[in-house]
Amino acid sequence: MTTRRSFLSLLGMVPIGAFGLSCRVSDSGSDKEEASGVPRSDAMDEALEMLAPYGASYRGGLSNHGPMTAEALVSLGREDAVAGWVARYRKRLSARPAQSQRVEASQWREALGDNSRSRDWDEFFTNELAEATWQNVVGVWVPRLAPGIAAAGLHGVIRVGHAVCSLRAKDNELRRDELARALSYWASDYLPLPGEYSRAGKLTPSLALKEVELLPSEQRSSRGLITTELKDLRGFEPFAEAIHLVDSTTESSSFMDDLLVTFAGIFVNTNSNSFEFLHAVTGTAAIVELLPHVKPEDRAAVHAYTWQVTAGVFARYARQNLVAEFESGPNGVDPKRLAQLAVASWDEHTIKLVAACTRGALTNSDPRLLAAAAKRVR
After folding, report:
1. Are 61 and 227 a contacting pair, CB within 8 Å?
2. Rounded-to-integer distance, Cα 229 and Cα 237, Å
3. What's the rounded Cα separation, in Å, for the pair 56 and 51?
4. Could you give the CA distance from residue 323 to residue 207 in angstroms, rounded to a whole number?
5. How far apart are the C-alpha atoms of 285 and 154, rounded to whole Å?
6. Burial of 191 (0-12, 13-18, 19+ CB in 10 A)
7. 172, exposed or middle or buried, with CB in 10 Å at 0-12, 13-18, 19+?
8. Where are the domains of the chain?
9. What does the pLDDT look like over 306-365, one tens digit per residue?
10. I need a labelling partner for 206 at 20 to 30 A (CA). Which of 20, 58, 93, 267 fits?
């Protein structure tokens, strides 16, 4: 039996900064070959070509993790694993749906949340990206879509985050097309939670979480998907004011760092590898990557809605006293070893979580980040 101590020994102990590539820093847009001998750009572009025929979801609402996981593998330095992983994964996917009717620029709000029009949204964002830089499109649309950040169980925003990381490394048509499809996924599955941002509160996310009332167990349905289960919060009046608990005007790095490590700590302290809290971590990490492209005056609202969806996950899924169970986790877990174990798992959620946590650990030394990644590969 593997104990916690023996498992952490297996992972090894090195300084946190010894590994990782932040997608916030360009890789020079290069075709430079890594140690694996596979060019970074070629591996990602090959993956996008392989995944081009497939839609954003399959089997009644499961998310297509292909483009996201390919980018996460590249960020972990495992370009050599990308093509094989995609070839195996895409067998489960479904074809892209047909177009329905054009999303008009003057009527885009009416089409939000209509997942029967995902191909229409693809075309809409393709046109947006043809008329402006991808940075400007992200800057305009992240604030517009932020109230519906729960879209597809946070997979919409997560896919956008990975698309942006890929574009920072190299800007080409394939990667802009992926950004269009990622934004489309967010827009077509747009899901607002109860409560609209109108004012900032006074608390940090970690303190505000202690004020979030949990949804009673008898009001928690069992529907199988995060997207549908979060809808249980509709009609739960105590949650509507949760968005106003936090001081969302706080500078982005402070606000998002606190939110990210708070939910990494929650994930560490759940009794199982909870998909719900895992997505709160990777969804928050995605917003961290998008905020540099958002205008300063729009960031408070994006902070607030990011907090709202994570608080919604907490209200819907947490058990009593979970906040009080935080622990710091181990120091110095070897990120290289985490990456090896994540890739060996072939599991999309594991690969994405490890990528998000190792990226975060480059600028945030809180040990809960790597502890969350370590828990997933245990």
Report:
1. yes
2. 16
3. 10
4. 10
5. 11
6. buried
7. middle
8. 205-377
9. 999 999 999 999 988 777 566 655 556 788 899 999 999 999 999 999 999 999 999 999
10. 20
